[in-house]
């Protein structure tokens, strides 16, 4: 089934010719930070935006900066008040989501500007007050009643704040202090609720592992294999036969206890226990979110495996893990072919490939492939990808080839790789060494300093290599022609001594050398250096560069203080002597900090963020046609039709299956961005209706697709008339 998806997507998108948007986002919803329920919907806050799952229609909808007004893709928490308003806790503060409108609600400082605020967790009480666990400004506990912000001294009140929860039955908030003690706080008075003495065996050993506030405002919590059930003003302690990672309470009073190794227990409202699963349900990562409903279903938000639904003794993914980009933290980008995008991701620098509309992670199952700690990547004129990782050099031309690093490199470690543009021979950098590889042999050269780590490497059109190089004499960049090293100082480059470090060295299509530092940019035409009239501190700090032919230069900015209220991060376009600026606050960039840029054959700019995933940008409309990757599979046409079409808010797609089949239903933009998806396992032959609720989508043309194992249907739906 998965291979089927990969071979067909190109066929579907290659046929689209409708007008396309300027931005398309690829974000990972695998990291679920929080979940909430609202009627028939389950909501998940993720590092790639918000996911909504319709339990009745079994349909998933995605919201991110590319397709909605969410101000940032990194959403840490979500809560829904009695009026249906959704409140989001994000990296940049509190967001109110009413209908299709998103409003940043941060408090205003004395200077009249919004304060920096990161909200880790939030909940809404019976009075509609939003209680927040924050970082960034003052105390960690804050509240907002829709008009007034308040801050509280959590250290004085609770000996610190570890976790909070609120109930629709009470005005106020429950707090777990840093010393395993519960407090109820109404905004004025904090009332301590000591743990039951029966947990103190031996004395002082009681620990709170997980807890929640039920619909009446009572606290349930676990301590090891003990469940503490509220009983008047204290708790009754019950023994369990597992040590749960998380607990959840459904509205009818059924408690769920989940352990990824020992299975799932439920405690019925009458106090009887039942084991509903003894399966090992291991999910990558440790930060799990649990939610239960009255339908007997359990919802699990995982750290790496998305939103999972438990029913009939098994978990199944709700978010699309097939087309999802594996990580939101982008380190490097490289493009081969017309539009095969390679990216290194996350803390482990794993390698991922975008092709045929799918993101595929390179794993240990790929023979001879690099799967982690990919330090550097580049391509040659034959469109082969080169990657270095630890003591290996990898080449990909449809199959992976692994080449050991030369023994002369200290510890056999390779840090960087670059390609000679004319000879297709590569250079690698290591500790105090560089080497040229002609496909058979390595030629080894020493750097001027044997202790210098060559972490960045660029080769110009004459075959010279360029590396950042720092000494006490003001040198900043070094060039090596195979025999001699030439140093260029900050004075040579017309850069101030406060220019900082070298972020990137790049070769333009016309042969010019561009040197990017956080504060300044200088370019070299082979004779003289020219400093550009840009000051990096205004735009957050220059970080990375990409060229679109000889006409356009793109600069991405990065700052360690990118969330400061007085810093707006930018994407910058240079055309001749003209500069155009795209600020994060008003442009749907994936994240304030831009870590990587690359341009494909369709002149789309691929933008990688420190978090927030990847955005594809084209001023004339994004083109994600994959006509250079023909489908190798023949499919029969599945009878299907959509009505009403055009529509204002909803449409129905009727389709007929002639044989039993797994089915994937998807709604996308004309450029391929996924908005809704639904997966049906082993659907029986017959006639079916797929209901599409499109009220939250903007006017325009959307593409639907029904994909069976051997049949396919696709078409467009137009939203208009609002």
In round numbers, the mean pLDDT is 86
CATH topology of the domain at 330-543: the name is Neuraminidase
Q: In angstroms, what separates the terminal alpha carbons?
A: 38 Å
Specify the CATH architecture of the domain at 330-543.
6 Propeller
Strand order of the largest sheet: 2-3-4-5-61-60-63-64-57
In quaternary terms, these chains amount to single chain
Strand content: over 45%
Please give the number of β-strands.
64
Tertiary shape: globular
Class by SSE composition: mainly beta
Helix content: under 10%
Radius of gyration over all CA atoms, rounded: 28 Å
Low-confidence stretches: 1-20, 626-634
Query: In this structure, how is the largest beta sheet organized?
Result: 9 strands, mixed
Report the CATH C-level class of the domain at 330-543. Answer: Mainly Beta
**CATH superfamily of the domain at 330-543, please?**
TolB, C-terminal domain
**How many separate helices?**
3
Describe the 3D structure:
The chain is mainly beta. The strands form 15 sheets. A 9-stranded mixed sheet has the order 2-3-4-5-61-60-63-64-57, with no helix packed on it. Strands 1-56-55-54 form a 4-stranded antiparallel sheet, with no helix packed on it. It is globular. The model is unreliable at 1-20 and 626-634 (pLDDT under 50).
